[in-house]
């Protein structure tokens, strides 16, 4: 785990983006709240900001701060969360977990504000993270997942060369109390071409 923390628990850069680890301080929560406060929650239908959070988006600065604190707690043992900046403005959130018991990296809690969708930002981030996971960390596999109804995410993951391993029934609980299946995908080290 030490190597994962050393490589991933820090600020990273892609050609267009900065991935920043933000501590859950009032100052940072204000920056995040300013980025999301005018977003339409309906655009975040498939998002669980962090595992214990039960709404698509925080509804206040105070909720944003609490959600950031929960993010930090949820990822403390096995992961990291970055806030994605483009032209010095937050456009999204991206998580990554690592399990050294089976040398597996897994994405988690990924979202982009509506105006940042469709520009290939997620692909750009995954190219960096896969390279780091396979080449620097020595991961055996990288896993990704999406809701069965999230067609755009499914297309993006498959286009990235991932194999769909299966479907976990009723594993996603939505804000209205309904359930849906989760699709799971992997790419193995021997399948990584870079």
Distance between the termini: 24 Å
Q: Describe the global form.
A: globular
Number of domain units = 1
Overall pLDDT score: 92
Adjacency order of strands in the biggest sheet? 1-2-3-4-5-6-8-7
**Would you identify the CATH H-level superfamily?**
Gcn5-related N-acetyltransferase (GNAT)
Taking all Cα atoms into account, the compactness measure Rg is 16 Å
The helix content is: 25-40%
Give the number of DSSP strands.
8
Question: How do the helices and strands follow one another from N- to C-terminus?
Answer: HEEHHEEEHEHEE
Question: Which percent band covers the strand fraction?
Answer: 25-35%
- Number of helices, counting only DSSP H or I runs of 4 residues or more: 5
The CATH class turns out to be Alpha Beta
The main sheet comes to: 8 strands, mixed
The CATH topology assignment is Aminopeptidase
CATH architecture descriptor name? 3-Layer(aba) Sandwich
**SS class:** alpha+beta
Low-confidence stretches: none
Q: Short description, anyone?
A:
The chain is an alpha+beta fold.
Characterise the protein shown here.
It is a single chain. 30% of the residues lie in helices and 31% in strands. The chain has 194 residues and is α+β, with helices and mostly antiparallel strands. It has a single domain, classed as Aminopeptidase (3-Layer(aba) Sandwich). The protein is globular and about 45 Å long. The model has no long low-confidence stretch (mean pLDDT 92).
């Amino acid at each position: 785990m030490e190597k994962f923390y050393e490589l991933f628990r820090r600020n990273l850069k892609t050609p267009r983006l900065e991935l920043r680890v933000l501590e859950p301080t009032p100052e940072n929560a204000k920056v995040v709240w300013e980025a999301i406060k005018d977003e339409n929650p309906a655009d975040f239908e498939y998002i669980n900001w962090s595992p214990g959070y039960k709404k698509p988006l925080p509804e206040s600065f105070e909720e944003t701060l609490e959600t950031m604190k929960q993010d930090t707690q949820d990822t403390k043992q096995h992961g990291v969360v970055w806030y994605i900046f483009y032209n010095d403005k937050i456009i999204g959130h991206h998580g990554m977990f690592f399990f050294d018991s089976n040398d597996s990296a897994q994405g988690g809690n990924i979202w982009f504000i509506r105006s940042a969708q469709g520009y290939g930002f997620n692909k750009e981030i995954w190219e960096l993270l896969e390279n780091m996971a396979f080449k620097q960390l020595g991961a055996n596999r990288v896993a990704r997942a999406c809701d069965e109804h999230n067609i755009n995410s499914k297309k993006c993951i498959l286009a990235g060369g991932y194999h769909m391993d299966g479907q976990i029934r009723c594993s996603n609980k939505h804000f209205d109390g309904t359930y849906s299946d989760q699709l799971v995908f992997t790419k193995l080290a021997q399948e990584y071409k870079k």
